[in-house]
Each structure stands twice: as C-alpha cells, then as structure tokens.
Amino acid sequence: MKANVHGHKETRTRTGIKILLTSLSAMVAETSTFPIDLTKTRLQLHGESQPLSSSTRRPTNSFRVAAGIVRDQGASGLYKGLSPAIIRHLFYTPIRIVGYENLRNLVSADGSLSLSSKALVGGISGAIAQY
C-alpha cells in the first residue's frame, strides 16, 4: 500500500515538472519568434493596403518593416502584444502536450500506437486544449 501511494505522488510530481517545463519552453519559443511573426504580419498588412496597380508602390521586405518598427516605436515595439501570446502558451501548450501523453498512455499501456492513432490522440488533446 505504501509503495502505491509513493508511486502516485511520484507520478504527480513528474507531471507537474512536465507542465512547468512545457510552459517555460513554449514561452521562451514565443518570445524568441514573436518579432519575426510581428514583422510577417505587418508585411502582410502592408501588401494588402497597397493596390496592385499602384505606381507609387514602394517595394518592401521584412528587414525594412522591422527597421520601421524599431525606428517608430523603439526595440520594444517588436514585442508589442507579447503578453497575450505568453499567457496563451502558459495554459494551451502544457494542456496539449501533457494531455497527449496521458491520452496516449490511457489508450496504450506501453505507449506504442500506430501513426493514425497518434494523429487521433493528438487531435483530441489539441481540441481539449483549445477549449
């Protein structure tokens, strides 16, 4: 009986560490890639705001867009809107990743699944995390 209680506590601790590390790694990844994503979005919006036949259309690229953000808003402008993205990853990513592992272990005791089963379990865990 004592070994079973101890094993349950160890599993909970391991799950807690997985949640913590998953959240941390997702936040680091989001922080690292956010300026690139912001620049991409601004570049897409810039292209939509210009008519295709405009003779005054000035060619632009991602470096020019990023430099414009830094010039107008400072370097911190590249991280405007980061807070909601971090909060999203604080919850969404660990639910998706740890949920996948728990569902996979529930379906298969040894964790070995076919590719289609892995896709199904991954889709379920992603849907649960999304809502």
TrEMBL record:
Q: Does the keyword Transmembrane apply?
A: yes
Q: How does it sit in the membrane?
A: Multi-pass membrane protein
Cross-referenced Gene3D superfamilies, in alphabetical order? Mitochondrial carrier domain (1.50.40.10)
Record localization: Membrane
Q: Which UniProt keywords apply?
A: Membrane, Repeat, Transmembrane, Transmembrane helix, Transport
Pfam families listed in its UniProt record: Mito_carr
Q: Where are the Solcar repeats?
A: 17-106
Return the PROSITE patterns for the record.
Answer: SOLCAR
Q: Name one GO cellular component term.
A: membrane
- Report the sequence similarity comment from the record: Belongs to the mitochondrial carrier (TC 2.A.29) family.
Q: What is this protein called?
A: Mitochondrial uncoupling protein 3 isoform X2
Lineage of source species: Eukaryota, Viridiplantae, Streptophyta, Embryophyta, Tracheophyta
